[in-house]
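In this supplementary section we document a worked example of the pipeline. Step one takes a protein sequence of length 437 as its only input; no multiple sequence alignment statistics are reported here. Step two produces a three-dimensional model, which step three serialises into structure tokens for compact storage. The input and output of this example are shown verbatim.
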Amino acid sequence: MNLGVLFPHLMESVWFPFLLVGIFGFLTGLEIREYLNQRGRNLDDSPLVKIGTSRTYTFIALLGVILIELDASLYLYMVGMVSLIVLLGTYYAHKLQNGRSGLLQPLIALIVYTYGPGAIMMPPWFVVLQFVAVVFTLSARPFAHSIIEHINPGEILTLAKFLVLAGVILPLLPDEPISPHIPATPFKIWVAIVVISSISYLGYLLKSYIVTRSGYLLTGLIGGLYSSTATTVVLARRSSQLGQPDISLNAGIVSATGVMYLRLILLIAFLNHALLDIALWPLLAFGIGCIALAAIMALASRRHTADDRSDNQAKTNPLELGIATLFALLFVAMLIVTQQVIQHFGNSGLEVLSFLVGFADIDPFVLSILNGKYADIADHQLVGAIIIAAGSNDLLKGIFAVALGRWRNVRSGALFLFVVSVMTIAVGLLISRQFVF
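The serialised model returned by step three reads:
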């Protein structure tokens, strides 16, 4: 609830922003001191040039409040800011003479000076957000340096291109059908690509830069965001290198499939919320069931001595423009195929098609179902097709596990995939034909 509703007189008083800004200015000074102490330890206790103590930052913050209260036209406040900039410029020149070139302290001092206008002109949460941003910036130095050391510069350019296409090109795309043979607008097609790429990119970043070396269970959970099929292939190949069975490896295979079901829920929620009422519970049951079984398998594997480590998965960035372009073409092709199958063969043809596409990448098909406009097909039939495709894909992953892995090492995971495949396809058929739900 807003503080202004609870304490209206408090929010209107002059001393409240004065007190709030003073506290945050003092706390900012303490955080600056801790930051400088840490820098000094990292630099063999060499002297560091600093602006002042916690009291200095407190006075800078209070000066902003005082000047803006004395002159609502902000003239005095701007004079104070110019004077502060001159003083900070002198400080920075002295800092350069001591071999230091960092601008962090002067910039934070200027932000502290804006605490006053933030507290007076904006709601209280705004100055709180200012303070939190400063603290986060000071505390994030080791994390930022770690990212700089490990991230591939080419991926930053790839992300920038993607943001241009998503934030600049996307709003310009027409939201009208461009052809009677393509049952979706260019705008919705690209929205679907942005959503699926973003989910995949999250898994890619987690695996590539945050959880680079992890147990098989965590590998499966993260890899399922990127691609459960690719994760199964990687773990199956890993099983052929193990000298003895490792239950945790099977836990990774099973957990990746569980995340696939939860990933489908996210896609439906983002792209076609009307289908969520029908699809939620069966997909959620399969997803949680798979992950729970994987967790049990991982716990059981602790009695074994096998190395519970996984290799990095595919390093292909899902935001690369070549991949996005290929995916867009596959998506449009699947839209056309799905529309033609429904027009000529109805729901029976859709069921067969959904089973067949499970032996490839199901994402283009799922997105075609979620974004297309199919007048001759009901919602429960569309949901049934998505679930059948997921079950068919489980069958493919089971075949990959057997073909690429060592049978005794992947036996439990492969058998589970075959069982859950049959169950998923059965549920999909029942929903498609309105026998359940």
